[in-house]
Amino acid sequence: MKQIIVVGNGMVGYKFCEKFVAEQGSEEFKITVFGEEPRPAYDRVHLSEYFENQDAKALEMAPASWYAEHNVDLITGERVSDINRASKTITTAKDREFKYDYLVLATGSSPFVPPIKGVEKEGVFVYRTIEDLEGMLAYAAKLNAEKPNAKAAVLGGGLLGLEAGKAVMDMGLEPHIVEFAPKLMPRQLDSRSSQVLKLKLESIGLNIHLSKATNQILGEKAITGMEFGEDDMLEVDMLIISAGIRPRDELGRASGLEVGVRGGIVVNNKMLTSDENIYAIGEIALYNQMIYGLVAPGYEMAEIAVKQILGHKEHIMPESIDMSTKLKLIGVDVASFGEPFMPAAKGHSIIFENKTQHLYKRINVSLDGKELLGGILVGDAADYNMLHQVYLNGMAIPEDPSQLILPASEGGSSFGSVLDLPDTAQVCSCESVSKGDICSSITEGDCNNLGDVVTKTKATSGCGGCKPMVVDLVNETLKSLGKEVKETVCEHFNFSRQELYDLVKVNKVADYDEALNLFGEGNGCEVCKPLLASIFATITMETPNRQPEIQDTNDRFLANIQRNGTYSVVPRVAGGEITPQQLITIGEVAKKYDLYTKITGGQRIDLFGAQIHELPLIWKELIDAGFESGHAYGKSLRTVKSCVGSTWCRYGMHESVTFAIEVENRYRGLRSPHKLKGGVSGCIRECAEARGKDFGLIAVEGGWNLYVCGNGGATPKHAVLLAEQLDDKTVIKYLDRFLMYYIRTAGPLVRTAPWLEKLDGGIDYLKKIVIEDTLGIAEELENEMQGLVNKYECEWKQAIENPEMMKRFKHFVNSEDTDDNLVFVPMREQKMPKQWA
Amino acid sequence: MQDILSQYESVSKEAVKEWFKVGKTEDFPENSGACIKYKTKQIAVYNFVRTGKWYATQNLCPHKMEMVLSLGMIGDKDGIPKVACPMHKKNFSLEDGSNLGGEDLKIATYPVKIEEGNVYIGFSD
Questions:
Q1: Which of A169, A268, A673, B88 is the most buried (most CB within 10 A)?
Q2: What is the side-by-side strand order in the sheet with B53-58?
């Protein structure tokens, strides 16, 4: 059996063992791994978590038992002191000798301690191992006991230094960061982003000192301060040095392996050193004249060494190594990818900066604007994973690349689906897991949820930065298979609204009961009943009078239920145009039935406080005077609001009232997944607020501009332009197509704006369907809509003319009494329901 | 206000002192609720045609004290027959009156019997 000796049991040394024993053919090798520290390998990336819980076990890469279970000999607390290349043996500090066939050096690095006078004083620490942290904790506890407001400084404002700054805060000391360069994280950030980060860190209590060269550590025995220059000093009681790393290449150096000028053991793309039996991986390996201080390249090197030793010679290290990184520093997102700094000759930068919110985003794109070259994110790195993938895979970017980083409210678009990524896209770089690996573990493997996928692929188990993307991928993949995350209607129907719509239509289902018998189970509920009622209405234009038992209460009584269980009545006032005689009629009815009256937001009049038995009486009078139902109670067309337009307005360009009335009367009574509102403005002053509606028309030179998918309400949204300068006929044609397509495909209770947001391809796709008719369904949509328009009848007229239908407008079955619990109190010359509590 | 609520207490079949006739079965809408009056009480009666079962509860929703439960939609949740209040969609079991959303709200239930096409509700007062 061949012997492999791994020197160093850090993250990369461990990863080598893990990857090796997982390979076929590994059983012919025996691995012995030496660790100088007293414990098995732990996760140094998340070292600062030790300050929160002091749980060293939680940081372990694998428990000590793992090594035994996998036939790996782990020897901790014993440093390898010598390599004898001629005899292929190593000697340890305990003077024991071991023979090897292959030697893997994974000794990592040690903190660089600059040669500053006084650096040996008590209270000066480095930040690397759990032992270092334990020393700091003990010292900090002593300081806290001796003096209040003790201060600690970190020398070095790089990535690790800021981590150490958090550690200082956690220890209850006043934190200071001292950096030689004029900016924080000089390797990852440009000056502006560093400024933003500095502001943010200062806002949470870190004191930051830039451009400070430390001359001397002050103090007798223990540190009392740092001196930067004459009369420039900082009093501190403790110092943590985090001024970079130096590869621990002394073993290689002593045994004559080729090393770099500034340290590191030289390796080729097979991770082989100048000795054909010795590999070097991780932070001691000098590859392409570079030391890579990140975990992902270290893991990749481990993988290459494993493959090479097992004879899979085709596996070699890529020429360029991605140094993109994302981390959370003291709760602040910081990320940089690709080329964060880019010479102006190579491309253009787009920068979004908001110091008030401590936000900074920069992307670098090629001169032709087609390629993403790199970028920096500070404060909000939510887009990092997607941007990183776009960069890695050379994916197409929007014509206006600023959309990649602009806030959504400023017209920035979120990315498409994660499923658009190529299968080869590396999602988890620590564990080299591609999008294809993740998706196929579900589509072809037997993974059914996030946990399964993580166990199977190991994705997210390294730095964890890819987690949001893995979650999205798992959900989207499950969704695409119709598993679990499927958006079904309710427990009674295992279908989406669109599926049910098709099923009912194709099978010519007669009523709710038949639908439940054919496609559902149980006895229905308040979700599926009105949903099917809406589907029946949009297929056959049936009114709620046919199946009152499946209607929401409002539709069942053709009125809006209000706070005390009474109802309100809204007659249609198309376009908001009303005659004095109609106003008088409404006034008389309101007076007769003692109803509270108010003008609605949709230019009509609402009459409140009617009891169920009064509804038909009220409607009889309104219908006799020429009114009809306003459908204010339904998930249906409500109003088409208008401004007065060219008939009266001196600015008006077209007759907005006339057209609003035509449009409202065309779609009156139309049931839809949610309520529908329209607006028509006579000029661009937009007095009808048409862009706040599901569909809006604005008069312009040469016709109407048609906007769709806006709304007011809880999540206001402006409607977006669908087509320009249309004549009346084309407006109707496009509206027919748009509305019918929405009604067919939207989920239950989804208004047009969120529907469009979820529509693949967005407004451009909608334009293709409505204007270009790429699906070839435009005529069908128009015909369906015309069919519904032709079948319209006023459901209130229908109800009051049919005694059978009238039976439900009664408070008690067994008594002519009315509800005696209603109490009204006066309010501004009208009335309102008495408050209960 | 509490007076209105306190007059509603569940009645078990065994505790019924009076079976009060509230109408013929055809007076009650199918797969829906309707309201009847008994002394000062308002009782919602539900007619499940699919299962052939009848239920009765107080008409008062204890959430906002509105006389509206008979106007709510009926159905079931995990096999338990229920009514959804039309005001805020609170779901109540028609078997024991408990709130199916886990809230501390409860409605009183009353036994129903059908004899010779007549609907009777059982009361203990």
A1: A673
A2: B32-38, B41-48, B53-58, B109-110
Among B4, B76, B86, the residue with its CB nearest the CB of A553 is B86
Residue A808: its chain B contacts at CB < 8 A?
Answer: 29
In this predicted structure, what is the pLDDT of residue A383? 83
H-type alpha helices, A541-628: 553-556, 580-592, 615-624
Strand pairing of A151-155 and A238-241? parallel
Q: pLDDT of A410-448, one tens digit each?
A: 544 445 667 777 888 888 877 888 888 998 888 888 887
In this structure, what are the phi and psi dihedrals at residue A263, rounded to the nearest 5 degrees?
Answer: 95, 165
**Complex ipTM value:** 0.91
Residues of A in contact with B81 (CB under 8 A): 523
Which of A491, A561, A813 shows the shortest C-beta gap to B86? A561
pTM to 2 decimal places? 0.53
Residue A384 CA to residue A335 CA, distance in Å, equals 7
From chain A, the residues in CB contact with B22 under 8 A are 813-814
Instruction: Give which of A456, A475, A496 is closest to A746, Cα–Cα.
Output: A496
Nearest-angstrom CA–CA distance, A441 and A474:
9
Selecting from B65, B67, B73 the residue whose C-beta is nearest the C-beta of A529 gives B73
Yes or no, beta carbons of A491 and B77 under 8 Å apart: yes
- Tell me how crowded residue A209 is: count the other CB atoms within 10 A of its CB: 16
> Which residue in B37, B39, B60 has the most chain A C-beta atoms within 10 A of its own C-beta, making it the best mutation to test that interface?
B37
Strand pairing report for A567-569 and A560-561? antiparallel
The total number of residues written for chain B in this structure: 125
Tokens of A45: 């990336």
β A676-681/B118-123 pair status:
unpaired
End-to-end CA distance of chain A: give it in Å, rounded. Answer: 85
Contact A815 B66 (CB under 8 A): no
Of the candidates A746, A833, A200, A180, the one whose C-alpha atom is nearest the C-alpha of residue A500 is A746
Asked if residue A656 lies in contact with residue A706, where contact means CB atoms within 8 angstroms, the answer is no
Q: Pick from A95, A334, A817, A119: which is nearest to B40 by CA?
A: A817
CB A391 within 8 A of CB A378: no
Rounded to 5 degrees, φ, ψ at A60 are: -60, 140
- pLDDT tens digit sequence for A574-605: 999 999 999 999 999 999 999 999 999 999 99
- In which band, very low, low, confident or very high, does the pLDDT at A491 lie, cut at 50, 70 and 90? confident
CA–CA separation, A300 and A426 (whole Å):
12
Please list the residues that pair with A359 across neighbouring strands. A354
Contacts of A526 in chain B (CB under 8 A): 72-73, 75, 84, 89, 91
Three-state SS for A188-226 is CCCHHHHHHHHHHHHHCCCEEECCCCCCEEECCCECCEE
How many residues are present in chain A? 837
A553 to chain B: which residues are within 8 Å by CB? 68, 71-73, 86
User: In whole angstroms, what is the distance from residue B22 CA to residue B67 CA?
Assistant: 18
* Structure-token pair, residue B95: 């078997």
Cα separation, A449 vs A220, in Å, equals 60
A654, A660, A662, A647: which is closest to A699 by C-alpha? A654
Q: Is A563 helix (H, G, I), strand (E, B) or coil?
A: coil
Interface of B with A (CB under 8 A): 1, 4, 22-23, 27-32, 34-37, 42, 45, 48, 50-51, 64-68, 71-79, 81-82, 84, 86-87, 89, 91
